[in-house]
Design brief:
Elements: H1 3-11, E1 21-30, E2 40-46, E3 59-62, H2 68-77, E4 85-86, E5 94-95, H3 96-102, H4 111-120, H5 125-130, H6 136-143, H7 148-154, H8 162-166, E6 175-178, E7 189-195, E8 198-201, E9 204-207, H9 209-217, E10 223-228, E11 243-246, H10 253-265, E12 271-277, H11 280-283, H12 287-296, E13 301-306, H13 316-322, H14 324-333, E14 337-342, H15 347-362, H16 367-379, E15 383-387
Parallel strand pairs: 11-12, 11-14, 12-13, 14-15
Antiparallel strand pairs: 1-2, 1-10, 2-7, 3-6, 3-10, 4-5, 8-9
Helix pairs in contact: 2-3, 2-7, 13-15, 15-16
C-alpha cells in the first residue's frame, strides 16, 4: 500500500449507522395518477462517494427530521423560546428547537408523556381513566389520530420545563424502506417507493414523519442514510432458479430491484410477478417498466389485481388462486423460490393461507401435510417474506 493510499484511507469518512451518509435527493416523482387516492412517490438518492454497498432485498434506513412548523407550535405551546439548552439522547446538549427537529419523536405520545399530562393537568378525567391497566384497548382507540401537540393544546394547565419535556419523549428513529434498485443498474444511486402519509384528524392535517420529509423538505438538505442488511430476503444463489414475487403497493420495491439485478447479471431463471393496487389507470407503480420487462422476456408472467376496478374486490391472493396449477408446477417441479413483500397485517396472511391451499389442493395433500411442506420451504429458504 502506497503512502498516498494510506492517506486516502485515513481521510475517507467512515459511514456507519451512528454516522450515516449524507445522500442527495435527485428525483422526487409522483408515480400515482392525479385521480388516485394515494400519493405514491419514487425517490432517487445520489450515493456518490459513500463507499458502502447493499444487495437487492436489503433496506435503506432514512433518518428524517420533524416538521419545522409542528416543532415551532410545540415550543410555543409549552411557553418556551426554542433557544433553551436541553440534553440529546446521545451527544452534547443542544437547543430545544434543534433537539425537537432532529433528535426526538414529537408526534406519538409516549406512556410517560400521557401520565405526566394526566397528573399535571387541572382536568383530564378521560385520560386518567383510560390509563388504567385494564383499559389498553380503549386507550389505543382514543389515541388514534392524536399527537403530542393535541394534548399540550387541550391541557394548557400541564406545564413543562424544556428539559422535563424532552425527557418524556423517545428518540426519533430512522425509517426503513426496501431498496427498489440494483447497484449493477445504478452504481451511484439508490431508489425506493413510498406512499406519502397524509390525513386529517381532530381538525388537523397529519403527515408521516419520513414520507413528508422526503416528499416536501428533502430537496435542498442532506438525506442521512445507511443500509440495513436483510440476508433472509436475498435472491437465490443459483441464477437459473425461478422466482415468484408477490408485492402489492409499495411492496413491489424489492422486486423491481431483483429484475434489474437479474437483467444486469444475465440470470436465466424465470421471473413471475404478482402486483396489486386499487386502479390500473392510476396506481400501476412502475407499470411501464414491468411491461417492458415482459416484452424483453425478462418477466415470464405478470399478474395484476386491481381491487377497485370492478364490483368485486380482487387482491393478489385471488390471482394466485387463479394460477394455482402453474404456481405449484413452478414451486414443486421447478424448485422456484417464493417471495412476499408488504403489509403483514392482512395481505401477507392471506397470501400465506392461499399458498398453503395451493399446496394442499394441487399437491393432493392433507392440511397437515401442506403445512409441513410450506414449513419445509421456509427452512430451505425458498419461501421468504419481508413484511411490516
Amino acid at each position: 500500500m502506497t503512502e498516498a493510499t494510506v492517506s486516502a484511507a485515513v481521510a475517507a469518512p467512515r459511514y456507519t449507522r451512528a454516522n450515516p451518509f449524507p445522500a442527495r435527493l435527485v428525483v422526487n416523482r409522483r408515480l400515482s395518477g392525479p385521480e388516485s387516492e394515494k400519493d405514491t412517490r419514487h425517490f432517487e438518492l445520489d450515493l456518490t462517494g459513500w463507499g458502502l454497498s447493499f444487495e437487492v432485498g436489503d433496506s435503506l434506513a432514512v433518518y428524517p427530521t420533524n416538521e419545522p412548523e409542528l416543532v415551532d407550535e410545540i415550543i410555543h405551546t409549552i411557553g418556551a423560546t426554542g433557544d433553551e439548552q436541553v440534553p440529546r439522547p446521545k451527544g452534547e446538549a443542544t437547543t430545544l428547537r434543534e433537539a425537537l427537529l432532529r433528535d426526538y419523536s414529537v408526534k406519538q405520545p409516549t406512556p410517560k408523556f400521557l401520565k405526566a399530562i394526566a397528573q399535571r393537568a387541572s382536568a383530564a378525567p378521560t385520560l386518567s381513566y383510560l390509563l388504567a391497566a385494564d383499559r389498553k384497548q380503549d386507550l389505543e382507540t382514543y389515541l388514534w389520530g392524536m399527537e403530542i401537540v393535541d394534548f399540550l393544546s387541550e391541557h394548557p394547565s400541564a406545564r413543562f420545563a424544556p428539559e422535563e419535556f424532552v425527557g418524556l419523549l423517545t428518540k426519533l428513529q430512522p425509517r426503513l424502506y426496501s431498496v427498489a434498485s440494483s447497484l449493477k443498474a445504478y452504481p451511484d444511486q439508490v431508489h425506493f417507493i413510498v406512499d406519502l402519509v397524509r390525513y386529517e384528524s381532530h381538525g388537523r392535517i397529519r403527515r408521516g414523519v419520513c414520507s413528508a420529509f422526503l416528499a416536501e423538505r428533502a430537496d435542498d438538505v442532506p438525506v442521512p442514510v445507511f443500509p440495513s442488511v436483510a440476508k433472509h430476503f436475498h435472491l437465490p444463489e443459483r441464477p437459473e432458479t425461478p422466482i415468484i414475487m408477490v408485492g402489492p403497493g409499495t411492496g413491489i420495491a424489492p422486486f423491481r430491484a431483483y429484475l434489474q439485478e437479474r437483467k444486469a447479471t444475465g440470470a436465466k431463471g424465470k421471473n413471475w410477478v404478482f402486483f396489486g393496487s386499487q386502479h390500473e389507470s392510476c396506481d400501476f407503480a412502475y407499470g411501464d417498466e414491468f411491461n417492458a420487462f415482459m416484452k424483453e422476456g425478462l418477466l415470464a408472467r405478470l399478474d395484476c389485481a386491481w381491487s377497485r376496478d370492478q364490483a368485486q374486490k380482487v387482491y393478489v391472493q385471488h390471482k394466485m388462486a387463479e394460477n394455482a396449477p402453474e404456481i405449484w408446477k413452478w414451486i414443486d417441479a421447478q424448485g422456484a423460490h417464493f417471495f412476499v413483500c408488504g403489509d403483514a397485517r392482512r395481505m401477507a396472511k392471506d397470501v400465506d393461507a392461499t399458498l398453503r391451499k395451493i399446496v394442499q389442493e394441487q399437491g393432493g395433500k392433507s392440511v397437515e401435510q401442506a403445512n409441513e411442506y410450506v414449513e419445509k420451504l421456509k427452512n430451505e429458504k425458498r419461501y421468504k417474506r419481508d413484511v411490516y
